[in-house]
Structure formats: C-alpha cells, structure tokens
From TrEMBL:
This is Disease resistance protein. SUPFAM superfamilies: P-loop containing nucleoside triphosphate hydrolases. Residues 134-315 form the NB-ARC domain. It comes from Mucuna pruriens (Velvet bean). One of its GO terms (biological process) is defense response. It comes from the Eukaryota. The keyword Magnesium does not apply.
Amino acid sequence: MASDIAEILKQNFLEFVQDKDLNLSPTITSLFEEIEKEFTENKGYWSPPPVESLSYFYQLDHTLSEYRANKKTFTLFSRLDPVERAHEKTLHDIKENLHQMRKSVVNTASNSTLFTSCMYPTRKDAPNFSIFNEEVQKIVNWLESNDRFKAIAIHGMCGTGKTTLARMVLDDQRVRDKYEEPMWVCLYDLKASDEMDVRIVKEMLSHFGEDPDLLTEEPEDNWLVERLNQKLKGRKYLIVLDAVWHCNDWFGDLYDDGKGDDMSKVVFSQALPKDSGGAVIVTSRHKEVSRILVREKNLIHLRPWDDEKLKELVKECLVKQGKSLEKINEENIDCVVYHCHGLPLVAVTLSDWIVEQIIAKKSSSD
C-alpha cells in the first residue's frame, strides 16, 4: 500500500507539471522539469516507486499544494514570490534525494550479477524497534527448536514490516551464534510466474564467488541445482528469499526433497540440503504463494496495525530521531498516525517529517 500511495503522488506530480497556466519562475520550472525527467527516464525504477521514497513524495505533494493554493496570486514577477523562494531549496533537496536513492540501489545491485533489484545488507544497520519483539521472539524460538531443515514465510500487505522483521531476526545474537553469515536474495524483479526459474540458483551461486562467465552461460539446470546443493551441504545456512511474487512447478514447496515418482524432475528445493540444519525465511505479499512455499503451519501474517500500536512506534521513531516528546502532544502523534494508514513502514519513514511540518505550521501561526 505504501508503494501504491507513492505511485499516486507521483502521478499527481506528473499531472501538475503539465499545467501550462502556472506562472512559475524559471528556477522553479527547471527544478520541476528535472524531477519529471528523473521519473520519465527511469521508469523501470520509479514504476512503482520504492516504499523508501514515500517521504520524498509526501514532501513533493506538500509543495505542490502550496503552489496550487497560490496559483491565482502569481504575477509576472512570480520569481519574487515568497512561496517560490521558500520552496526552492526543498525542491532541490527532493531532486537530489530521489537521484541518490536510485543511484545507490544501482550501485548496490552491481554486486548482484543477475538481478537489477537491491540486495539488502544483512547484519548491518538492522532496524531495532521493540514493537516487533514478540514476532522476533517467535521466529527465533522456531529457528532454535531443533536442527532439522525449516522454512517459514512472513506475509502481509506492502508496508507492514515484513523485510524489517526479517532483518531484525538476522540481527538477533542467538541467530548469529547458530547460523553462518546469511544469504539475502531479493526477488522483487521477478514479477511473472515463468520468471521463477534457474536464475535464482545462479544468483545464489554468485554469493559463493562462482565464475560470472560460467553463470551467464547456459549450463544444465540439474548441474546448477546440484552445484548449489554441494555449496550448502554441511553448512548451517540461513537464506532469506525477499519479496517473492510467484511460485510454480519448479519454484514451489521448499520442503520437497525431490524423491517423488518422477526421479528425473529437477526443482529448486533440491538445491537446499535438508540434513544440515539449514533454514529459509520467505517474505511475500501473497498468502497463497507463501503457503505453497512453506506450508500452512509455517506462516506468519503481518496485518496493518491498530492506532494504539502505531502510536507506540511513532513515539519510538521520534525518540530515535532525537525529538523531545515533551514538545510533541498527543494531537501531533494522532496526526502522524492518521497519515500512516496502519502501516509501520510509513510511520518510520514519515514520522520525523510530519512532526516537522506540524511544528513549522504552529510556529508560523504564533
């Protein structure tokens, strides 16, 4: 949902810049054109926008609202208008932040030889929100319960904290002690069922330093699956398959050992040794995909949060951002919660900016 909101705000901006009746200064017009160019020339990244960009889209939409409110008052000397001058720096910062966000993902993805999606860091800069303690404890207890192979899925709508929860689990000291350095594979780019293929195995092999030239060739699927199995054999591996959209006959039940009636059939799950205590965590928006991959009993459903739980998270975010809660009343907190639509990711992203807007508005009215 957070990504959907960002997409709506992006389309709102693109419609705004097509309005030829606005009499904006050359500087502001140029900034709008550069932001528009960022979206139109990089559609692969901005359609839909990543949820991490939502705060920038809210800032952009807030700026557009100011211009709409003052549209009829602009004159031929609008470049001197205080509204334009006040927002010039804001627009410049938004433009730079959007550009840097896209470039940083491209640079990070250069470590991933086959997908363009971001490979999230593991055990580095992991978020730490006490609000997820119960879910973290549940997953860690499950991972520690025995040394059999395990697969679990965290599912829920966009913005409910699936990826954040997975990263917090990886950062738990008990998980660090039990498992080797985890492997994180983001499958966000694979948005059709027929795309869930042996490229996933190639991606995982690249983590072990396999020859990129060999992986870009077309070796037999069974050779690649067996190769990954040998790399993982004897290890207490922990793999996160993040942002899974689909499954199919090849990429299905992770508990399947491939010892069914058709011994010639090769499937992804055969790449995962079942006798060395390995584990897989899946994150997905789709319950049915999650159920097929890990089975019904191994599902964790993250729902949108109620207002009281979200208030706790907003307060925790504000404290981490260095804000004094003494200067922020309950009405301010309620305003932040209202804009979050039950989504913790939006609260984390927007709490600081929304409160800044509230404080600025209050100061200007005093």
